[in-house]
Design goal:
The chain is an alpha/beta fold and 239 residues long. It folds into two domains: 124 residues, 3-Layer(aba) Sandwich (Cobalt-precorrin-4 Transmethylase, domain 1), CATH 3.40.1010.10; 101 residues, Methyltransferase, Cobalt-precorrin-4 Transmethylase, Domain 2, CATH 3.30.950.10. The protein is built from seven helices and ten strands. The strands form two sheets. The protein has a five-stranded parallel β-sheet with strand order 3-2-4-1-5, sandwiched between helices. It has a five-stranded mixed β-sheet with strand order 6-7-10-8-9, sandwiched between helices. Helix 3 packs across helix 4. The N and C termini lie far apart (55 Å). Bound molecules: S-adenosylmethionine. S-adenosylmethionine (SAM) binds next to helix 5, strand 8 and strand 10.
């Protein structure tokens, strides 16, 4: 009997934000695949999963380096897919865990595509998770969108141009991965007269969760990768 692969979202950080289905599958699978950017780094997804199920999990670590080099990425995605699919063919049920939701800026998408194309005999199912940006709106107790408002979600790691365009064309904007371009983003926000209408949130759902609308106080300081910004042009209701 072949095993099955699950792409499983563990939510943004708080173990209580796993879905009931994700919880059940984590307790049932034989193996948990843990994507990491560096072999020596601790996996946040695994620490969330382990806290949620409160049991020792059998794991297989997979390294996906943080690079924009397409060839390096492709080699790692191919290798990871081969390892996972082989385990499934051996009969193991496997959960490939991701922070937040597996279909939203996640390495799982590259594995999913390859499994479907190269291993059509292996069954793969996706278990959604709560995404970080909706969890962050809950942290600050402010709606992301209302009525006819538009929302753009931008990966803020590819230059300031797309961020400017999104801010000019939309009512509300979420900037994922805002850590690396933070200082330039603050300059842009000042130029567009949006200071006070933007909030920076880091590590939502972790014990050291933090947020502020005082963006200028953070300029020049190293930011956590697990952080994002929400800009609401109409302003906040109570922040
Ligand atoms: C590779 S993306 C993963 C997105 C994830 N799949 C999701 O559904 O939210 C990583 C980015 O998600 C955001 N992120 C993830 N967890 C977060 C958290 N607990 N607090 C704030 N931002 C978070 C940050 O912008 C980070 O750079």
């Amino acid at each position: 009997m072949k095993g099955k692969i699950y792409g499983l979202g563990v939510g943004p950080g708080d173990p209580e934000l796993l879905t009931l289905r994700a919880y059940r599958i984590l307790t049932e699978v034989d193996l948990v695949c843990v994507p990491k950017s560096k072999a020596e780094k601790e996996s946040l997804a695994l620490s969330i999963a382990a806290k949620a199920v409160n049991k020792e999990l059998e794991t297989m670590e997979l390294v996906f380096p943080m690079t924009h080099d397409k060839q390096i990425l492709k080699e790692h995605w191919d290798l990871a897919t081969e390892k996972i699919a082989e385990k499934a063919r051996e009969g193991k049920n496997i959960a490939f865990i991701t922070i937040g939701d597996p279909m939203f800026y996640s390495t799982y998408a590259y594995v999913l595509e390859r499994v479907k194309r190269q291993y059509p005999d292996v069954e793969i199912e996706t278990i959604p998770g709560i995404t970080a940006f909706t969890a962050c709106a809950s942290v600050i107790n402010e709606p992301l969108t209302e009525g006819d408002e538009t929302l753009a979600v931008i990966p803020a790691a590819y230059g300031i141009g797309p961020i400017r365009e999104a801010l000019e064309k939309n009512d509300n904007v979420v900037l994922m991965k805002v850590n690396s371009l933070f200082d330039e983003v603050v300059e842009l926000i000042k130029e567009l007269d949006l200071l006070g209408k933007a909030v920076y949130i880091s590590r939502a759902g972790y014990p050291d969760q933090f947020y502020t609308t005082d963006l200028e106080s953070l300029v020049g300081i190293d930011k956590n990768y697990m952080s994002l910004m929400i800009i609401r042009k109409a302003g906040w209701k109570s922040l």
